[in-house]
Specification:
With 226 residues, the chain is of the alpha+beta class. A hairpin with a 3-residue loop joins β6 and β7. The N terminus is likely disordered.
Length: 226
C-alpha cells in the first residue's frame, strides 16, 4: 500500500470512529431526556401526588367534644346512626334521651324519619335540664307548642358545617340564625328557651340515612315560643 493510500485509510478509520462516538452520545442524550420526561410523568401520577389531591378533598368528619360520649359501636354509634333515619338515630343516641321523649310526645317520629335531606339541630339531655322544671313540664304537656319548638330545630337540606352559618328557614316556617365558623357554631342566647347562654354544637356533622345532625347544648326557642 502506498503512503498516500495508507494515510487515506487511517483518516477514514478515525472519521468512522468519531461518527460512531457522536451517534452514541446523541443516543444517550435522547434516552436521558426521554427517561427524565417519563420520570416526571410518573411522578405527577404517582401515589404521592394522588394522596395530596385526596387529602385536599377529604370529606369532613363529625367534630366536637360530645362525639366522645357516643358508643364506639352498636346502636347509637356513628356507624350505626349513619344507616338509619334521624328519628330512629336520635332514639338510639345515649345523649338525646330527653329529645326522644319529646319527639314521641309530639308524635314526630314518622315526620323525621320520612322527610328526606334535612338538617336537625338536636338538643342533648343537658339542654333540657337547663330549662326550669316547671317550664319544661308545661312544654312537654302542650303538644301544639312542643311541636312548634321541635320543628324549629329542623332545616331543609343537608348542610355541611360551613353552610350552616347564617339565617335558615325551619320546618316550622320561621327562621333560626347560626353564627360562628364551621367548627365553632353558636345560636344566640335570646334564641334559646333557657336564655342563660348561647347554644353551642357538642357533636356536629353526624350523618344519618336521611339527615345531617348537629347535637347542641340548648333547646332553641321559635320567635313565638320564647
Amino acid at each position: 500500500m502506498t503512503t498516500a493510500r495508507l494515510s487515506r485509510a487511517i483518516v477514514a478509520a478515525v472519521l468512522t470512529g468519531l461518527v460512531a462516538a457522536t451517534s452514541a452520545c446523541g443516543s444517550d442524550d435522547g434516552n436521558s431526556g426521554a427517561a427524565s420526561s417519563a420520570s416526571a410523568s410518573a411522578s405527577a401520577g404517582s401515589p404521592a401526588g394522588a394522596a395530596g389531591s385526596t387529602s385536599a378533598a377529604a370529606p369532613a368528619a363529625p367534630f366536637g367534644p360530645g362525639c366522645a360520649g357516643l358508643p364506639a359501636d352498636g346502636p347509637g354509634s356513628l356507624a350505626a346512626m349513619a344507616t338509619v333515619p334521624v328519628g330512629t338515630a336520635v332514639s338510639q343516641d345515649p345523649l338525646t334521651t330527653a329529645l326522644t321523649e319529646a319527639v314521641l310526645a309530639a308524635n314526630l317520629v314518622d315526620v323525621l324519619n320520612t322527610r328526606q335531606d334535612i338538617t336537625v339541630l338536636a338538643p342533648v339531655d343537658t339542654a333540657f335540664q337547663a330549662i326550669e322544671p316547671g317550664a319544661l313540664s308545661a312544654l312537654l304537656g302542650d303538644t301544639p307548642r312542643l311541636t312548634t319548638v321541635l320543628t324549629h330545630h329542623v332545616i331543609n337540606g343537608r348542610l355541611a358545617p360551613d353552610q350552616l352559618v347564617g339565617e335558615h328557614t325551619t320546618l316550622n316556617g320561621d327562621t333560626v340564625t347560626i353564627a360562628g365558623s364551621s367548627t365553632d357554631l353558636t345560636v344566640a342566647a335570646d334564641q334559646t328557651l333557657a336564655g342563660a347562654g348561647p347554644a353551642t354544637v357538642v357533636c356536629g356533622d353526624v350523618p344519618t340515612a336521611n339527615a345531617t345532625v348537629y347535637l347542641i347544648d340548648q333547646v332553641l326557642a321559635p320567635p313565638a315560643a320564647g
